Amino acid sequence: MKLGFSAAEEDFRTEVADWLATQMHGDFADIRGVRGLTEKAGRRKEWEQRLGEERWSVIGWPEQWGGRDASLVQQVIFAEEYARSGAPGRIGHMGVELAGPTILTFGTQEQKERFLPDIAKGNTIWCQGYSEPGAGSDLGNVRTRARQDEETGEWVVDGQKIWTSLAQISDWIFVVARSEEGSKGPKGLTFLLMPIDQPGIDIRPIRQINGDAEFNETFFDGARTGAENLVSTPGNGWQVAMGLLAFERGVSTLGQQMGFRIELDEVIAAARENGAAKDPLIRQRIADAEIGLYLMRYGALRMLSNTDHSRPDGAALTYKMQWASWRRNLGELAMDVAGLDGLTTSEDDYSFDPLPNLFLFSRADTIYGGTNQVQRNIISERALGLPREPRGAG
């Protein structure tokens, strides 16, 4: 496991940091530090396009598709410096980190030529159609249906997805749907790419307690997509979706941790300013958070060193639950540091200060992207080889 960087790699870090600083203190200074996923969405799409112009958007992709053929270490460095610069969260991350790598791995040549250049250039925004009411993030219980029109060959989708992040500003959605009548669990699922702007798709934002509406309900009522937008083969959607998990637990984890570093530093600064740091229990919890952050970094580096990135290994399967639980605890620590001041706001529309906002956002961390309960089942069955949990009917 590599824990250090060479002189050439540090030179690359300087190049990245300098370019990002120029952008964040220049043309895009107005979106520096923006955290809410729907805030200033138009400007952030312009930022995605600037990244694409300079080939910084997908540096790990082949040059043929708009990347830089960057090494794994260079991708880690870029992710860390991106977070350190205060650059906004990537509204194109579903395409850059999930849809794009999935198409690169499982897609046809025609799909690569059609979709990858626009993802790399920041011209298309993607969202994910996985979770469903009553099923959560357990893909084995997906009920959304897909059938192929015998006359046109198009795929027709009916059903509902929920917690569809950024669907209201997205152009395309990748959907896992059940295509084999009577199938259960992971069998009979199909992975489809679908245009959002069509009569058969209805998107309804879900207003959160912090005033944002990054999540949505997405309804499919006879929604259609061409036969050429099937990824892999009918019924092989589970394998594609599981392959996608490896990308979700990929290089971006190091950039994510840099974001956690910034949040923890804000908590520490607030504790020093308001006197909460004098409480020995608060100091101990801050120390625990610091230790946990270092452990996550070393674990992520081990994960990235060991995996072949085509499917998640044991370390990758545990990482989501590790960071989600850590950040949820950090959110609780933030509220205890903020004290009574964290319970009120002088702004309209529930616009809170950073610490209570961290608490509100972190409550969902152990739910979206695979609840802790589902993650424990995945770890036990796929990493440890334990017997499968009995599945109910339906």
Automatic annotation (TrEMBL):
InterPro entries referenced in this protein's UniProt entry, alphabetically: Acyl-CoA_Oxase/DH_mid-dom (IPR006091), Acyl-CoA_Oxase/DH_mid-dom_sf (IPR046373), AcylCo_DH-like_C (IPR036250), AcylCo_DH/oxidase_C (IPR009075), AcylCoA_DH/ox_N (IPR013786), AcylCoA_DH/ox_N_sf (IPR037069), AcylCoA_DH/oxidase_NM_dom_sf (IPR009100), Mycobact_Acyl-CoA_DH (IPR052161)
Segments forming domain Acyl-CoA dehydrogenase/oxidase N-terminal: 8-122
Similarity-based family: Belongs to the acyl-CoA dehydrogenase family.
Protein name: Acyl-CoA dehydrogenase family protein
Species in which this protein is naturally found: Croceicoccus esteveae
Domain Acyl-CoA dehydrogenase/oxidase C-terminal span(s) in chain numbering: 235-383
Coiled-coil regions listed in the entry: none
Cofactor annotation: FAD
Pfam (any one): Acyl-CoA_dh_M
PANTHER family for this protein: ACYL-COA DEHYDROGENASE (PTHR43292), ACYL-COA DEHYDROGENASE FADE29 (PTHR43292:SF3)
Ranges where the Acyl-CoA oxidase/dehydrogenase middle domain occurs: 127-220
UniProt keyword annotation of Flavoprotein present: yes
The keyword Cell membrane belongs to this UniProt entry's keyword annotation: no
UniProt keyword terms in alphabetical order: FAD, Flavoprotein, Oxidoreductase
